[in-house]
Automatic annotation (TrEMBL):
Chain ranges of the Glycosyl hydrolase family 32 N-terminal domain: 20-225
Family matches, as Gene3D superfamilies: Glycosyl hydrolase domain, family 43
Record-given protein name: Glycosyl hydrolase family 32 N-terminal domain-containing protein
Keywords, in A-Z order: Glycosidase, Hydrolase
Length: 325
């Protein structure tokens, strides 16, 4: 059964495995808000644990907003968790501030010894958009400054760490500026922002919750984009939104996201790939809208994924075989 909290909406999620239990962190907000559109600015980072990726038990929340004056005194949004060689867990997350009216996104970091109790490392951001490559806030081009959903992973050669970020290039048609931003770090504390790993003009206004995975020896990028944030050309061609994937030549790209195909339709969103301890890969997402178009807000059951004969990642139980992108 999906992970449903009766009094709470849950949406974007990310996972960690401590070798004993699986942990899921997710955005959550009270259903007492009434309008699910209000959830984004009344949000907490929740936490649940599982022995099997199917039955979850909620535990104490992981993060809340900081005190006034911090870069994250308005919201704490989507992120990822990694463990460094000394055993410390690092949670990277998106923050927005009251001073910016929530319009400028930055990445922050918190640490934990046990995945349950987290301490933010600074009232200032660990990384933010660099105008050398990325669009800063311009309400004529887009509705916010995108620098969010950090996905952090170790360098394959052991040379530090990489961060993928939902970002927008500073050039090109506004409805197609979505790119995968990139930053690097030697130690998870100090980050240097560099050029994006994908190019603008691929037909996406934004590429949300990017994730890199290696499945059966093949690298793949997963991201999400709704219909309303596709480029005008893609919408005119009849394309719809959902969770997307594209094979990539290496963990650091380049990512040819123009060739992405959909894993799911918009009934599910913010997809994450998770490998279980038996080696199988699964897609999680949150239940986005029902058949009537109403927001749902619950974590999905795991969906099996694998490679199709034509080289696409797909959900192998057949439920999304009707998708054509």
């Amino acid at each position: 059964m999906p992970y449903v909290l009766p009094d709470t909406w849950t949406w974007d999620m990310w996972f960690a495995d401590d070798g004993d239990r699986y942990h899921v962190f997710y955005l959550k907000a009270s259903r007492a808000l009434g309008d699910p559109g209000r959830r984004h600015f009344h949000v907490t980072v929740g936490h649940a644990v599982s022995d099997d990726l199917r039955r979850w038990r909620e535990v104490r929340d992981a993060l809340v907003v900081s005190d006034d004056g911090a870069f994250d005194d308005l919201t704490t949004w989507t992120g990822s968790v990694v463990r460094d060689p000394d055993g410390t867990w690092h949670l990277f997350y998106t923050g927005t501030s009251r001073a910016d009216q929530g319009l400028v996104q930055r990445v922050g970091r918190a640490t934990s010894a046990d995945l349950y109790t987290w301490e933010k490392t600074s009232a200032t951001a660990a990384a933010e958009a660099d105008a050398t490559w990325y669009e800063r806030y311009d309400d004529d081009a887009w509705f916010d400054e995108a620098w969010r959903d950090p996905w952090v992973f170790p360098d394959a050669d052991g040379d530090g760490w990489h961060m993928l970020v939902t970002a927008r290039a500073n050039h090109g048609a506004p409805d197609g500026r979505g790119v995968v931003g990139h930053a690097t770090s030697p130690d998870l504390a100090t980050w240097t922002v560099g050029p994006p790993l994908s190019a603008p003009g691929a037909g996406f206004g934004q590429l949300e919750v990017p994730q890199l995975a290696t499945i059966d020896g093949r690298d793949v990028l997963v991201f999400s984009c709704l219909h309303g944030e596709l480029s005008e050309d893609r919408r005119a061609a009849g394309e719809r939104g959902g969770v997307w994937s594209v094979p990539v030549p290496s963990p650091l790209g380049p990512y040819d996201v123009e060739k992405a195909t959909r894993l799911t339709d918009e009934s599910l969103y913010a997809g994450r790939l998770v490998q279980d301890r038996d080696g199988a890969w699964w897609l999680f997402a949150f239940h986005h809208v029902d058949d009537a178009g109403e927001f749902v807000g619950a974590l999905s059951d795991p969906l099996p994924v694998g490679w199709s004969p034509d080289g696409r990642l797909h959900v192998t139980d057949g439920r999304f075989d009707h998708l054509v992108s």
